[in-house]
Design brief:
Enamine deaminase RidA (YjgF/YER057c/UK114 family); signal; alpha+beta; YjgF/YER057c/UK114; about 30% helix; RidA_CS; RutC-like_sf
């Protein structure tokens, strides 16, 4: 009987410890003294599945505009919204949500209307509709960089993300 009690206690402890390890959540570190909507760092506990989502690009917003033109895809804000909606659909098809995103890399092309400089403000206007909201407060670690160009001449935005399965 003593061996049975010890075995049951060991089994219960193992289940408890195993359960708590599985229940660990992704830890998002805020930027100290800042309300800027990105995480300073994100920790993913062992045993979580990471999902790498390929770069998404904007959809055509004006079918009447010249194919491949900036007018066909819109400005940086419009393209950011389009790209993030596309990522949202991809994540949804995988059983994930935007709140599961832990890392984001953003590639912005210089906007001709901004003297060839990336429109970071326009990007942020689109981004904050999806991250750091009351409905979706989870913030990813994020990098934003200006690149010389993307595949289509009218594209100003490409975004790739890494998500963690809850």
């Amino acid at each position: 009987m003593t061996k049975m009690r010890i075995g049951a206690a060991a089994l219960a402890a193992g289940l408890f410890l195993g359960g708590s390890a599985m229940a660990q959540n992704v830890l998002r570190h805020k930027n100290p003294n800042s309300d800027f909507p990105i995480a300073q760092a994100v920790e993913v506990p062992a045993g979580k599945t990471t999902v790498y989502v390929s770069g998404a690009v904007p959809s055509v917003v004006d079918e009447k505009a010249e194919k491949g033109s900036l007018a066909a895809y819109g400005n940086t804000k419009t393209q950011t919204e389009s790209v993030l909606k596309s990522i949202e659909k991809t994540l949804d098809s995988l059983g994930l949500k935007m709140g599961d995103v832990v890392k984001m890399q953003v590639f912005l092309v210089g906007d001709p209307d901004k003297g060839g400089k990336m429109d970071f403000g326009g990007f942020m206007e689109g981004y904050v509709q999806f991250f750091g909201t009351k409905e979706q407060p989870n913030l990813p670690a994020r990098s934003v960089m200006q690149v010389a160009g993307l595949v289509a001449p009218g594209w100003l935005v490409e975004i790739e993300v890494t998500a963690v399965r809850p």
